[in-house]
Amino acid sequence: MGPPISDSFDVHDIPNAGRGVVAKQDLPARTVLLDSERPYAHVIFRQYRKEVCAHCFDYDRGRTLPVRDSNTGKVFCSQSCQVNWTDDQGLPGIQAWQQLHSFTQSRSRFFKDIDSIPPSTSRPNRIVVDGAWAKADHARLHTQNANRKSKSSQRQAIDPDILGLLLSAIIFYHNHRQEWDGEVLALAMDSEPYRSQEDLDQHCASYLQLATILPSDLMPSCTSQVCRTIVEAGSHNAFGIRAGGEDGEEYMGYAVYPSASYFNHSCAPNLVKRREGRTWRFMAGRDVRKGEQLCITYLGGDEKDLELDERRRRLRDAWGFECMCERCKEEQGAQGVS
């Protein structure tokens, strides 16, 4: 459990970059290094949910997919994907998606897309984050009836994408506790993952809303710790789900893949990654020498055409670090910047 084990690479501490993946031997171009596991949590954004298969993430150029489950609101590209998804979720999971679909259908006029709203407050620090989640736990503890929404929650705006992400994590935790403890908890966590106070409040509210509608079998797994963990793990470890390959224009959602989360970024990556259904394949993009760090790009291919300052700005905004890969250091040196 924890970091992936391979004959081709090791996971090491990298100076100023956390943990990273290093080649144990020379690797010819196109060597397959890793096929990831299924996602441990994911969300398909609301505007794509009629167009993206809930199981394999297939996307047919915006067409509504042929198989629809009206009880859960999920769509599938085939009957086999529907069967596989149903098996993955288990009965409590299916019941939970049914409850969430019914809830969001009744509350559609209260939908609020937090990510589309410019933040009016700064990013909350760890003390504020801890306080907000403690307050949420206190509110849950004192709820008179866990199966009835309070008047305040009836009026409160909801973000169905946050609800979906948290529920997918709760179901995975319920069904695969050992994998969660061994792999999700081994990831580097971002203790300040919320872009604004509004974002933090919406996550806490989503947790409380789920605690009022989920089936009883899932209630022990619906904890603030599970919800916090997937947000803190996903902040710096999630992979975008795009149509048409890694650099596809349609950004349809994102998912957390623990084994794939140890590859660091480079603006001149020596690995290429390709989504194959709901998993990822990582291959050597060129010949790699023993001892080289194995890196992917976090910029989806855009790094090829971007200047140094723009690459660094995007990485700071999305991932919270100042890139010091070899390409960036070389270009910085050429500009005479110390």
From TrEMBL:
<feature type="domain" description="SET">
    <location>
        <begin position="7"/>
        <end position="299"/>
    </location>
</feature>
<dbReference type="Pfam" id="PF00856">
    <property type="entry name" value="SET"/>
</dbReference>
<protein>
    <submittedName>
        <fullName>SET domain-containing protein</fullName>
    </submittedName>
</protein>
<dbReference type="InterPro" id="IPR001214">
    <property type="entry name" value="SET_dom"/>
</dbReference>
<dbReference type="InterPro" id="IPR050869">
    <property type="entry name" value="H3K4_H4K5_MeTrfase"/>
</dbReference>
<dbReference type="GO" id="GO:0005634">
    <property type="term" value="C:nucleus"/>
</dbReference>
<dbReference type="InterPro" id="IPR046341">
    <property type="entry name" value="SET_dom_sf"/>
</dbReference>
